[in-house]
User: Fold this.
Amino acid sequence: MLAFTLRRAIQAIGVMIAVGIIAFSMFRFAGDPVNQMVGMDTSGAERAAIRKSLGLDDPVLVQFGRYIGNAAQFKFGVSYQFRLPVTNLLIERMPATLELAIVATIFAMVSGILMGVYSALRRDSWLAHVFQAVSLIGISLPTFLIGILLIYLFSVTLGWLPSFGRGDVVRIGWWTTGLLTLSGLKALIMPAITLGLFQMTLIMRLVRAEMLEVMRTDYIRFARARGLTTRAIHFGHALRNTLVPVITVAGLQFGSVIAFAIITETVFQWPGMGLLFVQAVQNVDIPIMAAYLMMVSLIFVTINLVVDILYTIVDPRLRSTVSRAH
Amino acid sequence: MSDAVVPHKVEGRGAHAAPGWFKRALDSDLFYSFRRSKITMVAAAVTLLFFLLAIFASLLSVQNPFDPAQLQLMNSRISPLWTADGQSPFLLGTDEQGRDVLSAILYGMRISLLVGVLGVVFSGALGILLGLTAGYFGGAVDGLIMRIADVQLSFPAILIALLINGIAKSVFGNKLDEMSMLGVLVFAIGLSFWVQYARTVRGSVMVEKNKDYVAAAQLIGLPAPVIMLRHVLPNTMGPILVIATINLALAIITEATLSFLGSGMPETMPSLGTLIRIGNNYLFAGEWWIVAFPGIALAVLILSINLLGDWLRDALNPKLR
Amino acid sequence: MTESILSVRNLQVEFASRRGTLRAIDGVSFDIAKGEVLGVVGESGAGKSVTGLSVIGLIDPPGRIAGGEIHLAGLRIDNLPAEEMRRIRGKRIGMIFQDPLTSLNPLYRVGDQIIETIRTHLSLSETAARRRAIDLLAEVGIPAPEKRIDGYPHEFSGGMRQRVVIALAICAEPELIIADEPTTALDVSVQAQIISLIKRLGRDHGTAVMLVTHDMGVIAETSDRVAVMYAGRVAEIGPVQDVVRNPLHPYAKGLMGAIPTLAGDDKRLVQIPGSMPRLSAIPRGCSFNPRCAFAFDRCRVERPEPLSRGTQSVACHLYDTVPAESAA
Assistant:
């Protein structure tokens, strides 16, 4: 178990180093950092001075070591557009993105599992067909179109919900939350639905397929032969066995949710990391792009690691094979 | 009743053993399942229609929306023809710059489809090449390529495409002309979607590699990769076709998303995504048609391609994961 | 025959398929007395398992019971509402499936699955049910049951898992156990143990057993009576020693010839030529006629009905016209 965890952790570090190389190459080789920082009228001598102060004349390996060292301490340099440390910019916007992603994931899991279970158990009901149709549309409609549609319906036409921003936020230490104010909650509804819809579709399809698969297994047939109630079979046995892979996938998807938040945040002008990233791409603000890549990768890798470990705890078969194999 | 049909059909197939490919296609299971699914037939018709509209956009449009000389500001923000303020010949109204929305959609669709198709071709070629390389050489090369594939697969394509886009802008400078932007988009999409092809082809190569004919080919001095290519590709044609169809929808979504985020096609040569981005600014002013029609066009296009892809996957039933 | 626990009369089971309706069971009748072990034997696809599943009411769509009656101790059960049938399953009829490796839910402790079943059918407290579960595990021969009860299925060997499955099948003291190929998936060395366990439990609790298997050897060893099935029908049924020593139906003769015996080295193993027809292509008349060495014109036209011959009952035209002795 420990060896397994350790091996996964080493793999995770490997991935982070690879991402670090990409981030560093972006920073160092995609355009000249000095040109990005200074104005047109800066003299050659001044440029050379800046170049030296940034350590850009050092051997590439030294520079890379320094970059990774700084990154490990969450120092990603200064944004070209804002002239502020990238880390501060990201930290400031992180709560907005995380809150949005978490609420969207909860929404996606709850509704996706409910819809999936229903359409697996009542396969031929009209509602199950409606769910199937919704899932096809959920996959086919680009996220930003869903967002625009919601804004048109609930902001422009009905005037019920705000079309942009986070509403009023409450500051708790360095964290800001919109969950404690009415306007914050209202502002969260549409972005969370927009962001969660695709995941919901995914989870629903997965739950339905898995559950149908599980219902065909021998142990469900045997559970029926034992005379267990339909309720116990569906919700005790079938659902539990369905949820193990589903929760794994949903967990792994959390990283994607954060990345997909880029689009949702742009549609709703949500002041999160994604919006910052999109602006950085438009303005070629490489330090922010590189830092965002590193941050998202870190979140990805951490979640992967946690899910891997959790999975072995949830599924007793894996637990013992893992401990036996090592 | 149906009992009698089945053996008859089997005999019928044996009877004319070598018909033309067209007849064979009509007789195939694929076509049979196509004919049985009405929704697939509709989806295919719509997809075909959209491709035709895009190809013949210049014949069907009242103006060339990419040509500023043809746009007149006095025609700006006209609502669709059937509303009170509608004006001929602007069937779906006009936008801020006096651009006919229908013409813009037709031309925009052309861009969207072009980027989508080129992106799919590029990612397919890249994926097949890398899959062949990984499967054929094995060892460290295989390990490296598949590791990259694993890592990349866990990152959403849109993030990768955005990053590539940003890097390209940084390398080439912020002001790219329209055609180079199109190239950058194709490149970004291609690099984002190669993994599935590579995995499929690699799997097939691994199976074929140990077969006798490869050793035999090497013995008589034939280049094994060429021989394998001729065996591997037909085997993987089905799955690749399915991946390509589904990826066409994904590529179009990705392009539209990038353009919507302002990192795609510029407003001087808008794709559907760019049109939606432009139209979104007028939503609150009540000029819904500027965003609604490009949005509907995009949604219907993607839905049709997805339906085709779903059907193709079920009909060919390759093991896709 | 004394008081019968299970009585199946003219059972018909159909499966709707794309090619039309297939009849998997066509007019099967048999009885099982209290405490009796009935072996049901036949090739795969003969309808043995489907018969077992219809008795316990687990035929799933597209399959359905199309005709006939099933009585459990006088109560007709083939047309009971789902909820009432559910109450009978596990309580009055226990079932053992072929593969113990897949019969248990891998995510639940063995004990939880037994306790769940006990508490579904008997009003016992959690602790009482747990005590009973431990007793059951001990009874089916699992060592250190008070410890093993908290194990997960994957921690048990195949044979041990099948013992757990048996404990689950008998945990509410059913009157009838249906064992569907209970030893097929097990090692040969374990098979005998499981068979003798089922036999012993049946005897101790006075439980009737319907033992479905393709292994005539297993049946000869355990059963009181045997039903030989072929293509969805009962070809022959009778006391096991009579059917083994003096099979009447040509198919049963072939089947008995296929049992390897230690002593009879001069008797070659007999093989029945050909294979059983598919459900979609069952021949007219007697379904065995294309493979039968004794087939005559009538066999190709008319379906044979069961005929009584002493203790045995046989569905064969040979016995309708000619006395039983001369057929052999």
Chain C has a mean pLDDT of 84.
